[in-house]
């Protein structure tokens, strides 16, 4: 049966594609670049002493970018504050972004422990993103519209759909071709299966970074393609359709490899900036406030852009009274900025915040 955008695409071929892009020189040229950039990022990230410093900061950025694709706008500042404040009323957009972050972090932990990608994990990601535990694989037909016309109808629910998602899981866990090429194939396939009623885009983007961790191309889930996809959204959608309608895999794979290459370079620059700033801040506190200096204190200021008294107490850096004195000293040094939020007081690491904002 020929592909018909208005009919459920039950003939969506199983993985791997029967196509000889495996020999494509263009793919291999791009592949070597992407692999090099990714390896450099993987090699460099351990300079950041505490993985939470990268995770908390970059993940929130990703969560925001990924959710923007779904038109959930929420400003960086609101997000970071929501992360630090316990009593803040969170609006729906901020909540969605925090769900995304939670889904990513939680699934990374599970994958690290179990070392297999299974259907439960995929469903769990979807559920956390949607803030539900009731729904799973969809039982109804859904369609993809571009605002004007129906561009794609994924396979029908039931046996057909289950069969394809099982094939996806099997292929994810197999060792066959180069893992970066495979990530591109898996991403196309996942979105084409469209296993859920909604949230397939976000779930699929989380699966990309998890896959890189699963295949040991990264130790931490810090390569986020959402920004790139968002910035090249029209091309991304066009290339999807090219695979479906004309079996044109080569361009799609190159697009995804390029996304990896550029994003790895961007992230590496971020990692370096965070590290430089961390070192600099250490020197300032050591030099100008040696009586309050401890490695743990400065490290804490980098675990997320906002800090508060209770964080110092929880990390056993200082008692309540001393903690507030410490933070005020850091305000006087120009490192932190004090902000009152209702009855809570939070302290912003100004320069870290600027580093994170820069795109
Ligand atoms: N022609 C297409 N064929 C297959 N998949 C597509 C096509 N066009 C878009 N997609 C995928 O569908 C996703 C949107 O699906 P869905 O609305 O379920 O996910 P979402 O997470 O809610 O949205 P978004 O990805 O926009 O944030 C897109 O992100 C894209 O990955
Ligand atoms: Mg949606």
Automatic annotation (TrEMBL):
UniProt binding sites for ATP: 70, 194, 198-205, 236
UniProt entry tagged with the keyword ATP-binding: yes
Keywords: ATP-binding, Nucleotide-binding
Listed name of the protein: Cell filamentation protein Fic
Domain Fido: 117-258
Catalytic residues in the record: 194
Keyword DNA repair listed: no
GO molecular function, one term: ATP binding
Xref: Gene3D superfamilies: Fido-like domain (1.10.3290.10)
Source species, domain of life: Bacteria
Pfam families xref list: Fic, Fic_N, SoFic-like_C
């Amino acid at each position: 049966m020929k592909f018909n955008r208005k009919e459920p695409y039950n003939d969506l071929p199983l993985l791997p594609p029967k196509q000889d892009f495996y020999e494509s020189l263009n793919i291999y040229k791009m592949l070597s670049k992407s692999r090099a950039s990714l390896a450099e990022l993987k090699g460099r990230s351990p300079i950041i002493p505490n993985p939470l410093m990268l995770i908390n900061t970059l993940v929130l950025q990703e969560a925001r970018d990924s959710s923007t694709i779904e038109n959930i706008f929420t400003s960086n500042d609101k997000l970071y504050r929501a992360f630090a404040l316990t009593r803040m009323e969170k609006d729906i957009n901020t909540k969605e972004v925090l769900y995304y972050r939670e889904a990513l972090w939680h699934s990374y932990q599970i994958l690290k422990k179990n070392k297999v990608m299974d259907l439960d994990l995929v469903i769990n990601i979807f559920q956390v993103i949607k803030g539900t535990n009731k729904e799973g694989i969809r039982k109804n037909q859904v369609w993809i519209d571009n605002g004007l016309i129906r561009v794609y109808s994924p396979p029908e629910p039931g046996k057909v759909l289950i069969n394809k998602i099982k094939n996806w899981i099997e292929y994810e866990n197999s060792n066959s071709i180069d893992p970066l090429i495979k990530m591109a194939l898996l991403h196309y396939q996942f979105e084409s299966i469209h296993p859920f009623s909604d949230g397939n885009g976000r779930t699929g983007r989380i699966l990309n970074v998890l896959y890189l961790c699963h295949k040991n191309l990264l130790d931490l889930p810090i390569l986020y393609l959402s920004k790139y996809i968002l910035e090249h959204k029209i091309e991304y959608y066009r290339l999807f359709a090219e695979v479906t309608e004309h079996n044109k895999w080569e361009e799609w794979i190159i697009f995804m490899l390029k996304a990896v290459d550029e994003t790895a370079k961007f992230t590496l620059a971020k990692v370096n900036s965070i590290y430089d700033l961390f070192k600099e801040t250490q020197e300032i506190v050591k030099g100008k406030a040696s009586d309050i200096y401890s490695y743990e204190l400065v490290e804490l200021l980098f675990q997320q852009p906002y800090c508060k008294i209770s964080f110092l107490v929880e990390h056993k850096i200082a008692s309540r009274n001393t903690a507030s004195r410490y933070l005020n000293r850091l305000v006087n040094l120009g490192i932190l900025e004090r902000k009152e939020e209702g009855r809570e007081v939070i302290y912003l690491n100004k320069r870290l915040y600027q580093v994170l904002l820069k795109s």
